[in-house]
Write a structure and sequence with these properties.
The structure holds three protein chains of three kinds. Chain A is about 45% helix and about 15% strand. Chain A is built from six helices and five strands. Chain A has a five-stranded parallel beta sheet, with helices on both faces. The longest helix of chain A has 17 residues. In chain B, the strands form three sheets. Chain B has a five-stranded mixed beta sheet. In chain B, strands 1-2 form a two-stranded antiparallel sheet. The termini of chain B are far apart. Chain C has one domain. Chain C has two helices and two strands; from the N terminus they run H-E-E-H. Chain C has a two-stranded antiparallel ribbon. Chain C starts with a helix and ends in a 15-residue tail after the last helix. Classes of the chains: A alpha/beta, B mainly alpha, C mainly alpha.
Chain lengths: ~140, ~900, ~80
């Protein structure tokens, strides 16, 4: 894992991580950071929509956990940008939403999200989804 | 004594002046500076072309011979103009809509754009007007003779030129003058502003001359009383005993018909009309003009009869009375007035007739001759039209001269005019039917006009040649082949009545009867039915545009080819700007109307049909599609109305539905927001609870997570409290007593509470000018809650690079006002009202703001309202939102 | 109101016609003179002046209707 991390150095000099979390609620960010780190992944985080894209371009992670209700640029908007970007197009995205409406899930699917988790979530649920997505990328 | 050379020189100079007026007016109009030329009074004066030499010279003669009878010629038109709303207005509207160019065009258009009817009308008009032209030639000739002092002498020659030679010279001069005047170009619509201006000028000259002569006569005669008394003493019938008889009625009918049917009157009143409202002015001004023209007629006649030598021609009293008093200047003015009335009539009448001849006879003949193929070749339709008009003018004046020549032995002017009146009156029944009777058919109108014409020709036109033809004289006396019941002036044995009454009665009776009977026996074609609807339902909506009856696949190039030949390249270019290669039917329709304005409805129709489809168009086919009958048209109008109602109902439903959906959406949005607000702290609580269930945590971690759970629980509680608070406020529960409180203290506290939040966000609350102290009726805690809410919002939603929140307060006009402003994203105008609603907060999914519960503003507004104050969003030009709380100060 | 005015216009037109024709016109065949002028002449001119006045009055009150554009709706 260390070797792998060492090998994934991006141009900007930042260390590329496994997962980028985009979430503006501090307590939720903290909980996600804790459980995902504990599961063994390296984590970076941002708290607004604009920051997601700039961070992704500088050092693309293996997965983005994206909250829908983000300041400056909504999660859906960010997702759209990712899917339209030549470099980032294949990046797995896990959508996180507190609204829990079927409509949001549909929107997410249409925009090409790879996973969808509703708040409040079970920790295991998040970890399973992340594992499924990152694992899938590895085996492919 | 005035020399004949001087008189003729003055007449020619006067013509030159007219030409100048026409030229200048045309130029002004062309440069778009028509100005006063477009005034209703110029229009009215032009209509006064009705007053010809007949009025100027003949009315006095008529009054001298038959007393008040001359007035009938002016009372008929007066009635028609008083009732302008019912007939003239319709004619003007129709002619504008359909680009009617003449009376023949009008009837042709109404009866299915029939070219045959147009030809018939044209021929009748040309023949019928010939006596009228002759009247003018005779009047001008006589007036030149009278003023030069040759008329009353036995030799009757003027420097070796006899009456006939003089009349020929006058006719030739007039023809030349009219050709120069009226056929310089082919207009889109047959309007001749220059000519109208000249005619209006002549109308003023003739009125002034006649009134001047009248005043002079009254003055010389020692006043009206003296004139009438002298006449009575001389044994004249000043009371016009027996005037109001059948002849009076017949003349009134004829003059009323003439004002509508005379080609020149139709030309000026209907075709040259540029604004329907001009008719409004003419409705009283033209009768007024006629009144002034008639005012002195009887006094002049009576004075002439008593003061002039026996045997003097009463038709020339207007000239000879001033001459006899040695007033040569006035006589000359009178001569110019009479010359004006003759020239204006000849100019307008021959222009109107020439348009009819060229549009309805020459053009169709050419179309038939060339089978439509030659349209594009040669010099083009435009110059052909002009040449045919020039030829027509010469022909018309020639016919007038011939009539003059053959009837030169009869003396009086007025009876000649009545012959023409009766001739054109034959159009009246068809015109009235065209305007008001849907069932009138083409066959009926054609037959009716023809029958009326034959009766007129037999009983009115032919008898005028009795003096020059033995055969005619014999027929007059014994009837043809001895059939006495066919004697022209006692038709069908109806003897013992006035010849005029005889012809007016029989011609109009048989004409009308034919029209009605044939209409009842025949049925109109589809196109006739459509045109009838357009004429009769004129003022109903949705009939303004005529349905397209020419269909087919002409290219714009073909059509343009035709249009260029008629209009010339410049106008065609303008007309075809932006027209696609295969023009839509509407365009062809419009082109037909434009063409109709230049060459008449029938010719335009034939011409376009040939170009468009190459074969005879099947109008019937088109109307089978449209539903064929008149009822179908009405039905479709009904349908249109109904579907219009349906459309509006549907639109209303649509908007109602939209509102409902919006409301629904708002409720949805609110629930979704509440859901979000509840789920967010719940997410933390659940996640950290699960984490805490694991054992391998440090105490510090454990404490931290428990504290987070605690905070999130508080947040959740607060949210639930807010919802409850709001619903309680909604229902009017949890009241508080409004007491006198210091609002400034509440504001201080609110700023204090929010300061730490601002600091955390690296921003500053700028406290602006303050009221210092303000006592209001309210509840300190509640007011504080509102202010905190506003300041927190201003902080939380502020995404500016250097975020600033400004708080200021003051007391104005007995109100305490707090304003809280930020330089954040602001609130779009369309949401300004919605943000105070319970179920909304800003635009959904707002990406640039940390979401709140969306209830704060709704609660705040309710609280402030309870304190008799107002909470509002103040529109501002700069970035950011500004909320204002206003409370009545004690 | 407009309808009444149009009815008034029709009435004035018909009345004018009747006044100027027999038998009504014959009522004024008095063979008398007023201020030296025969009565029938005064009568006819008085009717005439009244009709001009009525037409003037009507012309300012009769409704103004917008003139239907002949090409409206099909010039596109």
């Amino acid at each position: 894992m260390a070797a792998l991390l060492a090998g994934r150095r991006a141009k900007g000099g930042d260390v590329a991580v496994d997962i980028l979390i985009a979430e503006d609620e501090p307590s939720i960010l903290e909980s996600l950071d804790f459980i995902l780190r504990r599961a063994g992944w390296s984590i970076a985080s941002v708290t607004d929509g604009d920051a997601v894209l700039s961070t992704l371009r500088r050092a693309p992670p293996r997965l983005v956990v994206l909250d829908v209700m983000l300041p400056k640029r909504s999660g859906f908007d960010v997702l759209k940008q990712i899917r339209a970007d030549d470099v980032l197009r294949e990046l797995p995205v896990l959508i996180l939403t507190a609204k829990g409406q079927a409509k949001d899930r549909r929107t997410a699917e249409e925009l090409g999200a790879d996973g969808f988790v509703t708040k409040p979530y079970a920790n295991a649920e998040v970890i399973d989804e992340v594992r499924r997505l990152i694992g899938a990328v590895h085996t492919a | 004594m005035l020399s004949s050379e001087l008189v003729i020189a003055i007449a020619i100079a006067y013509v030159g002046l007219l030409f100048l007026i026409a030229y200048v007016s045309d130029r002004r109009a062309r440069r778009g500076k028509a100005g006063f030329l477009n005034s209703p009074f110029v229009y009215t004066l032009a209509i006064s072309v009705y007053c010809t030499s007949w009025t100027f010279y003949g009315a006095v003669g008529s009054a001298a011979r038959s007393g008040l009878e001359y007035l009938a010629i002016y009372l008929g038109p007066t009635i028609v103009f008083i009732g302008w709303w019912f007939i003239l207005r319709r004619l003007v509207r129709i002619s504008h809509n359909q680009r009617i160019t003449s009376i023949a065009d009008l009837l042709s258009a109404r009866f299915g754009k029939s070219s045959r009817l147009a030809v018939l009308i044209t021929i009748i008009a040309v023949i019928g007007i010939a006596p009228y032209i002759a009247l003018q030639l005779k009047a001008v000739t006589s007036s030149i003779q009278a003023i030069a002092g040759v008329g009353e002498f036995p030799g009757r020659t003027l420097r070796g030129i006899d009456e006939v030679g003089l009349a020929l010279a006058v006719a030739a001069g007039m023809a030349l003058f009219t050709i120069l005047f009226g056929t310089r170009n082919v207009d889109a619509k047959e309007q001749h502003l220059g000519v109208v201006a000249a005619i209006a000028f002549e109308a003023i000259v003739k009125l002034a001359a006649l009134v001047a002569t009248g005043i002079f006569v009254v003055y010389v005669g020692g006043g009206l009383q003296a004139i009438f008394s002298r006449a009575e003493a001389a044994g004249l019938d000043i009371y016009s005993i027996g005037t109001f008889d059948d002849r009076w009625i017949a003349m009134n009918v004829l003059s009323a018909a003439a004002i509508l049917c005379l080609p020149r009157q139709f030309q000026i009143t209907i075709v040259e009309n540029s604004d329907e409202n001009h008719l409004r002015t003419a409705s009283w001004a033209f009768p007024g003009y006629l009144l002034l023209m008639s005012l002195f007629t009887l006094p002049i006649a009576l004075f002439g009869l008593t003061s002039m030598p026996a045997g003097a021609n009463p038709d020339m009293f207007v000239l000879t009375v001033p001459l006899a008093s040695g007033q040569e200047g006035l006589a000359l003015f009178s001569f110019i007035g009479g010359f004006s009335s003759a020239t204006s009539m000849i100019i307008v009448e021959s222009i109107a007739l020439s348009i009819m001849v060229s549009n309805h006879i020459v053009m169709p003949l050419m179309l038939r001759f060339t089978q439509g193929r030659g349209i594009g070749r040669g010099q083009g339709v435009s110059s052909l039209l002009l040449n045919s008009r020039r030829f027509s003018i010469a022909l018309i004046l020639g016919l007038g001269f011939l009539y003059f020549y053959f009837t030169r032995n009869s003396n009086a002017l007025a009876p000649i005019g009545l012959i023409s009146f009766c001739g054109v009156a034959q159009f009246l029944p068809s015109i009235i039917a065209a305007l008001f009777w849907r069932e009138a058919t083409l066959k009926a109108a054609t037959a009716a006009v023809a029958v009326g014409f034959v009766v007129w020709a037999w009983s009115s036109f032919m008898p005028s040649f009795a003096g020059s033809s033995v055969v005619v004289a014999d027929i007059m006396a014994h009837g043809p082949w001895g059939l006495t019941w066919l004697r022209p002036e006692a038709l069908f044995g109806l003897a013992g009545i006035d010849p005029l009454v005889n012809v007016v009665f029989w011609s109009l009776f048989l004409n009308t009867a034919t029209l009605v009977v044939v209409s009842l026996l025949t049925s109109p074609s589809a196109l006739e039915r459509v045109q009838a609807a357009l004429f009769i339902d004129l003022f109903r909506p949705s009939t303004a545009g005529s349905p397209s009856v020419i269909r087919g696949s002409a290219t714009a190039r073909d059509l343009r080819f035709v249009a260029e030949r008629v209009f010339g390249p410049a106008r065609a270019y303008a007309l075809f700007a932006g027209v696609p290669a295969v023009p839509p039917p509407q365009f062809i329709d419009r082109l037909e109307r434009e063409l109709a304005g230049s060459i008449g409805a029938a010719s335009a129709h034939v011409m376009l049909s040939k170009v468009v489809s190459g074969d005879a168009i099947s109008i019937e086919e088109v109307f089978e599609m449209a539903g064929e009958t008149r009822q179908a048209i009405e039905y479709s109008q009904e349908l249109e109305r109904t579907s219009e109602e349906l459309r509006s109902t549907a639109a209303q439903l649509e908007s109602a539905n939209l509102k409902l959906r919006e409301l629904d959406g708002q409720k949805d949005e609110f629930l979704s927001q509440v859901s979000h607000e509840v789920r967010t702290p719940m997410a933390s609580i659940r996640s950290f609870s699960e984490i805490l269930l694991d054992d391998d945590l440090s105490d510090a971690q454990r404490r931290r997570f428990v504290s987070t759970i605690h905070q999130e629980s508080l947040r959740l509680t607060k949210l639930l409290d807010e919802i409850l608070d709001l619903s309680a406020l909604e229902r009017g529960e949890r009241p508080w007593d409004n007491v006198r409180i210091d609002a400034e203290a509440a504001l201080d506290r609110a700023i204090e509470v929010c300061a730490p939040l601002a600091q955390r966000r690296h921003m500053h609350i700028v406290v602006g000018p303050r009221a210092g102290s303000a006592i209001v009726e309210g509840d300190t805690d509640r007011l504080c809650q509102v202010l905190i809410n506003l300041i927190v919002n201003a902080i939380k939603y502020n995404d500016a690079d250097t975020p600033v929140v400004e708080v200021r307060s003051e007391v104005i006009d007995g109100s305490f006002v707090v304003e809280i402003s930020d330089n954040g994203p602001g609130i779009p105008a369309n949401e300004a009202q919605a943000i105070f609603d319970m179920f909304t907060r800003g635009e959904h999914g707002r990406s640039d703001a940390t979401p709140g519960a969306g209830l704060g503003l709704a609660i705040s507004r309710k609280i402030i309202t309870r304190m008799s104050g107002a909470l509002e969003l103040v529109p501002r030009d700069t970035r950011g939102a500004r909320f204002r709380v206003t409370l009545p100060a004690c | 109101m407009d309808r009444k005015l149009i009815s008034a216009a029709l009435f004035i037109t018909v009345l004018g016609t009747l006044l100027l024709l027999p038998p009504l016109a014959n009522v004024f065949q008095l063979q008398r003179r007023f201020l030296g002028v025969p009565a029938e002449l005064i009568y006819l001119f008085a009717c005439w002046v009244a009709l001009v006045g009525a037409a003037f009055w009507l012309s300012r009150r009769l409704p103004h209707e917008p003139e239907a554009e002949p090409g409206s709706g099909d010039d596109g």
